TrEMBL record:
Transmembrane domains' residue ranges: 12-32, 63-80, 86-104, 111-128, 134-155, 417-435, 466-482, 494-514
Protein's UniProt name: Membrane protein
Primary location class: membrane
Keyword Heme found: no
Length: 711
């Protein structure tokens, strides 16, 4: 992981733009003789240079604006607290805690906190008057604005980044289809889908193509889920005596990979539809031959059912893809919603991802993110105390290194720590030798800055060690514009980086978070929270007099907390050492199903808010009991508990409710419309529950097979 270099993650064009934004103030400062001002503006531009390298245009622009404001305000506060060491340490601790807590929202939110905290730490090194502090903050904000303006110019297209992200997702799905048990494939598709979720759920799709891309993203999640279920069932069948069909299974996986790769190509260029049809027909024939060999084999029948479900989603994605290259209207892949659903107003407080509500829900020791925020704050307070009270020169690099190294998970913390340490030492040594050979004129420094700044930005995602190498040189050269002690600067930075990095690693070892032990419990907690949330909402439909907004709000808050904990647990466990195995595919797919159930419950609550006055629907009581029982049973299974709750026949209940809805259509149209809406959302919930049941069934059966084999 430390030495891994991913060429596909190289960022060239945007790195050139960010480099211009950083170097331009230095050039103007040298030309005009205002070196210090140029360095200050370049410092502000540097903070935003890396932010402009990822995400879509709208998210990138919003994040850069918030980072620019955060950096300017934090720099001013840092300069003002410099004369008061303990106040400075306390402020850095608070900012660090907020940075850790912002992870509950997403990675971009964390970056805002991270860059703001770093700016605060740097400015605590300088003794400035209040007026000078404000001027310094203003100069850094000017640098930030420069980067923002430059980032807008070359990227005016609205959906370019989304299309590239979708290509990456479908290519990752193709690799996953070929080998769904490979840990690198699992991590890659999980990472891509999480990144896409942040982008597509934050941006409201505008325009025909953007809406199609959003649907393609939704289909990708469904395809991943169906791939997992089918692959697990197929693998289990082979392990239980179907070894002679191993070659057939490999052929099926190969063709699925070809189909998904063709979809990735079709996002930007028209692929051959006939070729795709031939691939589908070939897999159809392989599956049919499998079933014909053993027509009474239940496992093979299940494989056929799962493949049909997967094929439906693949074909829908194909249709959406082709519609981007045609002028005709898009063929909708999902059921058309009734008109009354389209008219629902947006309620900010019941959104699936409301940032403020998410933060509030995680302000508890039960939250994984909250505990990480506390750990980060403790590390930063210790590092800041060393910085403020030790005799080390320029020791503000100690807390900066600590906050850059410490992450919620094991792998990222230790790989970043080692990579940063090696990159810093090599960078400090390289620039010291280089400036000992070359005359450190402003022209020389500017040329070096252009090269290393571009290298740092271009390699940020591809390899963190190389990024640290170039970034170390960039910072030392930047300081050389106002301080010519190059060798001393290199030594100080190396020593401080070692201290800060080692401090972060030691604290992580003393307070580790091995999440693989908690995954089943976290997902069970997630399902329980959704169960309570669902019951509260449906009770308001059954008897409007029981509608209790405060109780529903509390259930929604607990559901958000459980969601954050479950996602953080799985994401961190994926980055733990391989000696701690767990079923990576099943857990991630169950998270996806739980997320879809949450969306359905939120839709039900939003409908209540739009229609607060409505007739009671007591006929929903059996459906409520059935769905609640299914969720309770799933939760108990995940905890390894036995449940004695008998779940009613949900299909029979749905048929009875459909009959009542038909009668209400002529008797009470309002009640019929409400019942229709509840049934629509309930069917989606039940479908996701059935998918989770199948995942757990396959997992348990595979475990039993493994236990028998080992016995």
């Amino acid at each position: 992981m430390v030495f891994r270099f991913d060429r596909s993650q190289l960022v060239i064009i945007r790195s050139i733009v960010s480099t211009i934004g950083f170097v331009l103030p230095l050039v103007l400062g040298v030309i005009t003789g205002h070196i210090i001002e140029g360095v200050s503006i370049a410092g502000g531009a540097s903070s935003l240079g890396s932010v402009s390298l990822t995400s879509t245009h709208r998210i990138r622009l919003r994040t850069m604006i918030l980072v620019g404001l955060g950096v300017a305000i934090s720099a001013c506060i840092g300069a003002l607290t410099e004369p008061y060491p303990w106040l400075s340490i306390l402020t850095i601790g608070i900012w660090s805690f907020a940075t850790g807590l912002l992870l509950a929202i997403n990675q971009n939110a964390m970056i805002i906190g991270l860059q703001s905290t770093i700016a605060m730490i740097i400015l605590t090194h300088f003794t400035l008057s209040p007026v000078q502090a404000l001027l310094q903050a203003l100069l850094m904000f000017i640098g930030a604005l420069l980067q923002i303006m430059l980032s807008v110019i070359p990227f005016r297209q609205k959906v370019g980044s989304e299309s590239q992200l979708l290509i990456t997702i479908y290519q990752s799905l193709a690799d996953y289809a070929e080998d769904p048990n490979d840990i690198d494939n699992i991590r890659q598709i999980s990472s891509d889908l999480r990144r896409a979720e942040d982008i597509f759920t934050t941006n409201k799709p505008v325009g025909k193509k953007a809406k199609i891309f959003y649907r393609l993203f939704e289909q990708a999640g469904s395809i991943r889920l169906r791939l997992t279920i089918m692959s697990d069932t197929l693998q289990l069948f082979i392990e239980q005596g179907g070894e002679q069909y191993e070659q057939t299974a490999a052929e099926i996986r190969k063709e699925l990979k070809n189909i998904l790769n063709a979809m990735a190509e079709d996002i930007t260029q028209t692929a051959l539809a006939d070729k795709q049809t031939q691939r589908y027909e070939y897999i159809d024939r392989l599956i049919k031959e499998l079933v014909q060999h053993e027509p009474d084999n239940y496992k093979l029948q299940q494989i056929q059912i799962h493949y049909k479900s997967l094929r439906a989603h693949l074909r829908n994605a194909d249709k959406l893809n082709r519609s981007t290259h045609k002028s005709r209207p898009v063929l909708a892949w999902r059921p058309q919603l009734p008109q009354w659903r389209v008219q629902l107003k947006a309620h900010t407080r019941v959104q699936l991802k409301n940032p403020l509500s998410t933060i509030q829900a995680n302000l508890t020791l039960q939250s994984t993110v909250f505990r990480h925020a506390i750990r980060l704050a403790i590390v930063m307070v210790i590092a800041s105390m060393i910085y403020r009270f030790s005799p080390l020169e320029r020791s503000y690099w100690i807390p900066i290194s600590a906050i850059l190294v410490l992450r919620p998970d094991f792998t990222t913390t230790f790989t970043r720590g080692i990579a940063r340490l090696l990159g810093t030492m090599l960078g400090a040594l390289s620039i010291s030798l280089l400036l000992d050979i070359l005359p450190p004129t402003y022209t020389t420094l500017l040329i070096i800055e252009v090269i290393v700044t571009f290298g740092a930005y271009a390699l940020l995602i591809a390899n963190y060690g190389m990024f640290s190498y170039f970034m170390t040189i960039e910072i030392i050269v930047l300081l050389n514009f106002v301080d010519k002690h190059t060798i001393e600067l290199g030594i100080y930075r190396t020593v401080d980086t070692i201290i800060g990095g080692m401090l972060a690693l030691i604290v992580y070892l003393l307070w580790p978070t091995w999440e693989h032990l908690r995954i089943s419990t976290r997902i069970a907690d997630r399902l329980e929270a959704l169960n309570y949330y669902y019951i509260e909402v449906i009770n308001a439909y059954i008897d409007p007099d029981n509608y209790d907004p405060a109780s529903i709000l509390e259930c929604r808050k607990q559901a958000r907390l459980a969601r954050t904990n479950a996602e953080a647990s799985v994401n961190q466990a994926l980055k733990e050492p391989e000696k701690y195995p767990f079923d990576k595919n099943t857990t991630q797919c169950m998270l996806t199903n739980a997320e879809q159930i949450a969306e359905n419950i939120i839709s039900l609550e939003a409908y209540l808010l739009n229609m607060p006055s409505h007739p009671p629907l007591p006929m929903l009581a059996p459906l409520e009991a059935a769905i609640a029982g299914m969720l309770e049973s799933l939760s108990a299974t995940l905890r390894g508990e036995q449940t004695n709750t008998s779940v009613p026949d949900v299909d029979s209940i749905l048929r009875q409710l459909e009959a009542k809805r038909s009668k209400l259509r002529t008797q009470d149209k309002i009640a019929s419309a409400r019942l229709s809406f509840v049934l629509f959302e309930s069917r989606l919930i039940i479908s996701n529950i059935h998918a989770m049941q199948q995942l757990l069934y396959t997992q348990i059966e595979a475990k039993q097979t493994g236990d028998l084999a080992s016995a």
